[in-house]
Amino acid sequence: MKILIADDDLTIRSILQAMTKEWGFQPCLADDGNAAWASLQQDDPPHILLLDWEMPGLDGLQLCQKIRQQVTDNPPYIILLTARNQAEDIAEGLESGANDFVSKPFKKVELQARLKVAQRVIRLQQERLRSLADAQLAASVFTHALEGIIITDQQGIIIDVNRAYSDISGYSREESIHRHARHFFFADNQQAWQSIYQAKKWRGDIHSTRKNGEEFYIQLTISAVYNDNDEITHYIGLLSDITESELQKQQLEYAANHDGLTKLANRVLLKDRLEQAMARVRRDAKPLAVVYLDLDGFKAVNDKFGHDQGDALLVALAEKLQNLVRETDTVARIGGDEFIVLLTGLNQPSDCEPTLQRLLQACASHITVDGIETKVSASLGVSFFTENDTLGPDELFKQADTAMYAAKNSGKNCIKFYHEQLS
Fold first, then answer.
1. Is residue 45 within 8 Å of residue 2, measured between CB atoms?
2. Is the peptide bond before 105 cis (omega within 30 degrees of 0)?
3. Is residue 159 within 8 Å of 151, Cβ to Cβ?
4. Are 413 and 360 in contact (CB under 8 A)?
5. Is residue 76 within 8 Å of 48, Cβ to Cβ?
6. Under 8 Å between Cβ of 79 and 50
7. DSSP class of residue 349?
8. CA 115 to CA 130: how far, in whole Å?
9. Which residues have a Cβ under 8 Å from the Cβ of 330 and sit 6 or more positions away?
10. What is the DSSP string of 240-294?
11. Distance between CA 204 and CA 189 in Å, rounded?
12. Residue 214 to residue 204: CA distance in whole angstroms
């Protein structure tokens, strides 16, 4: 630690220089008050000052007053060196800004003890400044962070939130504090709360609702804060609004599993649902039916009226088919005018026949545009899967496709069920 020794007596300066160096200080020397003042204006000035009371130019008292006129968070520790020992002189020195004094002729042990006190004071002062700087930095981060920050007590009661949290959730600080975090996040997700209370941390994406009722998605990380006794004192939550990216992800997932024109399930989603349905058949012993539906005369629609009219027909037909089946069933478009309907949870295969007739009727329609009329219908091929079957999804599709071609070859606009003779 640097120490400034200001004394116009060369002998005293030399003695003090040798002693302070022996004690581990870095002595800086000045032979009068002006030189001492100049030394204090440099970068990284000394933090402990040994000032002779009586010096040419600025004396020690005047230098003390000048130093204390400067407003600083890290003031130096000043020890006056003086032959004066009257109470009035000592009081005057302390009032001028000195922290301590040493009477001349000084004793080495006394000076060393007073310098140790000065070191402790300076170190405590610097630790306080570092703590204050850390606190100010933390406060600045808390205030200006783009991520929402929520602080709760050990019971999960909110004690503070930052501005970003309010911007994301719509709830002000006043509306949030003194309420349990469960009110705002995954109130019905007991597994998440158990993880927080048992593992003392949790991270995941959650779906929630802003104050205005708007749904949104956030990435939330919750961690416990411990004291020196390893006891939890608080929980801190960091949250980022990922609504935009989550919606984009959902759109991509939807596009990957649905037909772009009709919004029906596509081949990928259909196969996934069929595999799940086949597993239920093995478990519940209730058969399912795969219905392969191909339009008759659709090419003529495109040729006569154009692809826009053909697309409109497909969209209208998709809506009709969707309305004819249960929510547990699936309607998928797998090609231009080809659809597959998955009928599940049948008590017996014949249970699906009324639905098949309604599907057949829904596809039969006449289209007239600018006085030109054309007719469309559908050929349906049906295959079944029961609990004892060993077929895979692709084989089941192939059987339904084979039955559909049998319907085409039988005059169209009819239903055919797969049997081995068709293969």
1. yes
2. yes
3. yes
4. yes
5. yes
6. yes
7. G
8. 22
9. 265, 269, 270, 273, 274, 341, 342
10. EE-HHHHHHHHHHHHHHHB-TTT--B-HHHHHHHHHHHHHHHHHH---EEEEEEE
11. 12
12. 20
| Token pair for 148 | 């929402």
- Give the end-to-end CA distance of the chain in Å, rounded to a whole number: 97
User: What is the Rg, in whole angstroms, of the alpha carbon atoms belonging to the chain?
Assistant: 43
What is the Cα–Cα distance from 374 to 355, expressed in whole angstroms? 26
User: What is the Cα–Cα distance from 346 to 356, expressed in whole angstroms?
Assistant: 13
Q: What secondary structure letter does DSSP report for 66? A: H
Query: What are the residues facing 87 on neighbouring strands?
Result: none
State the Cα angle at 84 between 83 and 89, rounded to 5°. 150
| Residue with token string 């300066």 | 13
HSE (CB half, 13 Å, CA atoms) of 340? 28
Q: What is the pTM of this model?
A: 0.59
Q: Tell me the C-alpha distance between 48 and 20, whole Å.
A: 11
Report the interhelical angle of 393-409 vs 267-284 (nearest 10°).
110
Helix extents (H) in 41-156: 60-69, 87-95, 108-144
Edge to edge, the sheet with strand 2-6 lists 26-30, 2-6, 48-52, 77-82, 100-103
Q: Amino acid identity of 191? A: Q
In terms of DSSP bridges, do strands 77-82 and 48-52 run parallel, antiparallel, or are they unpaired? parallel
Cβ–Cβ contacts within 10 Å for residue 296, how many? 20
User: Would you name the residues annotated as active-site residues?
Assistant: 337
Taking every pair of C-alpha atoms in the chain, what is the biggest distance, in angstroms?
128
pLDDT tens digit at each of 423 positions of the chain: 899 999 998 999 999 999 999 999 999 999 998 998 999 998 889 999 999 988 888 888 898 999 888 867 788 999 988 888 778 878 888 888 888 888 888 889 999 998 999 899 888 888 888 887 777 777 787 887 888 999 999 888 999 999 999 999 999 999 999 998 878 776 566 677 777 777 788 888 888 888 998 989 988 888 888 888 888 899 888 999 999 999 999 999 999 999 999 999 999 999 999 999 999 999 999 999 999 999 998 888 888 888 888 898 899 899 999 999 999 999 999 999 999 999 999 999 999 999 999 999 988 876 665 666 678 899 999 999 999 898 999 999 999 999 999 999 999 999 999 988 776
